[in-house]
Write a sequence for this structure.
């Protein structure tokens, strides 16, 4: 089948789909990754076709609206600004989404495009399925992953999850009205469209392990937890020579990286983390990422983009922003984490790491100080129980096949 995998957002919202797409292609499907033009090299490296969407997410974060987003000091403030930013941009994507869908037999839709993609699938009469990286359906078992890290109680969790879904609907409301008219569909409010998807048990597979987030018992039929979709890393020299030399010159360092998250004061943050590493007697590897982190000195090295699958197993621990992708990469490598949650779902994943016993503590990025971070680093690297649990979990994750449930669902969707 001709499969269009559609996603939008930062690199972390795209990279897992290169692994999913590569797995589907190996099974005989003709796969096209549909996302922002800046990520075309990721599709090429995975051997996938590519259909470009407009909007450069990194450039948008450099605008006044984007800088206001990362200056927000509360999760609610960040979410409100993200909703406003996304609402202003989503209409620019519809033309190319329709064109890509028209050339496909089936659509696989990330959470960031599901409301639009489902409308397009309805209008073009294509089967579709969600492929989500976070648990977004409301449940009594935990609070919404993108706004809370602690339970609000069964009733509170469910109510908050439903309220979040209403807020997400508003991102797409205007674009969906225009799109439905363009495709000859009857008018339908965004909230009613969501209810129709849920009433019809629209299928969604989630790209994380049930060992990390068990499937909630009160989820409706059609919602599955497939296992991780690891980003595809092509064969070849995996690490830069200067990094390999640094690794070989001393004990395993600690990796520090915030991926595509941005922070208000990257120099100050870098200096605090470097000081905490030195206080704990540890070397560090800083990945610049979208925040521009860096540290200098004989015990510190700054690097650019590199495959986490090759770098993380050689680290003593990973200090990260607790995004879904970096969290998964640390779990896969079997190394302890020191999560510094930045925004959105980071608090949820950081709390899961601590609950699984592979992180000694969650260290909030807001008001970060040297002492608590240095203490967490010492514990993560000196207490062997964290490494032991991380390696045991990694061995179990290695036995999972997150692509297989998606393949099975595709067979049911075959037109």
């Amino acid at each position: 089948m001709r499969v269009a995998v559609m996603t939008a957002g930062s690199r972390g919202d795209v990279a897992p789909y290169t692994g999913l797409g590569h797995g589907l292609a190996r099974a005989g499907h003709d796969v096209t990754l549909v996302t922002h033009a800046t990520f075309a090299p990721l599709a090429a490296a995975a051997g996938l076709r590519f259909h470009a969407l407009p909007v450069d997410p990194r450039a948008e974060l450099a605008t006044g609206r984007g800088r206001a987003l990362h200056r927000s000091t509360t999760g609610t403030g960040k979410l409100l600004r993200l909703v406003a930013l996304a609402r202003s941009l989503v209409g620019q994507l519809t033309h190319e989404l329709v064109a890509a869908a028209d050339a496909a037999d089936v659509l696989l839709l990330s959470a960031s495009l599901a409301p639009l993609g489902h409308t397009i699938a309805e209008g073009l009469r294509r089967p579709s399925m969600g492929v989500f990286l976070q648990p977004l359906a409301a449940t009594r078992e935990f609070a919404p992953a993108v706004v809370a890290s602690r339970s609000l109680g069964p009733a509170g969790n469910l109510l908050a999850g439903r309220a979040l879904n209403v807020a997400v609907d508003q991102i797409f409301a205007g674009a969906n009205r225009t799109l439905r008219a363009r495709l000859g569909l009857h008018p339908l409010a965004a909230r009613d469209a969501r209810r129709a998807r849920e009433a019809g048990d629209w299928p969604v597979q989630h790209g994380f392990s049930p060992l990390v987030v068990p499937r909630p018992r009160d989820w409706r039929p059609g919602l599955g937890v497939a296992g991780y979709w690891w980003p595809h890393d092509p064969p070849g020299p995996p690490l830069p020579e200067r990094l390999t030399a640094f690794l070989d010159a001393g004990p395993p360092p600690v990796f520090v990286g915030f991926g595509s998250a941005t922070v208000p004061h990257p120099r100050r943050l870098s200096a605090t983390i470097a000081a905490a590493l030195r206080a704990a007697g540890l070397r560090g590897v800083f990945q610049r990422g979208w925040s521009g982190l860096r540290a200098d000195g004989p015990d510190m090295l700054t690097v650019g983009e590199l495959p986490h699958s090759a770098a993380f197993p050689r680290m003593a621990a990973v200090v990260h922003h607790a995004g879904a992708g970096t969290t998964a990469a640390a779990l896969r490598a079997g190394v302890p984490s020191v999560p510094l949650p930045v925004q959105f779902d980071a608090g949820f994943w950081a709390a899961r790491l601590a609950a699984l016993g592979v992180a000694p503590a969650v260290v909030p990025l807001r008001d970060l100080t040297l002492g608590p971070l240095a203490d967490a680093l010492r514990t993560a690297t000196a207490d062997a129980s964290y490494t032991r649990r991380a390696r045991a979990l990694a061995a179990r994750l290695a036995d999972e096949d997150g692509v297989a449930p998606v393949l099975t669902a595709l067979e049911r969707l075959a037109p």
Observations:
- The mean pLDDT is 91.
- Residues 154-182 form the longest helix (29 residues).
- DSSP finds 17 helices and twelve strands in the chain.
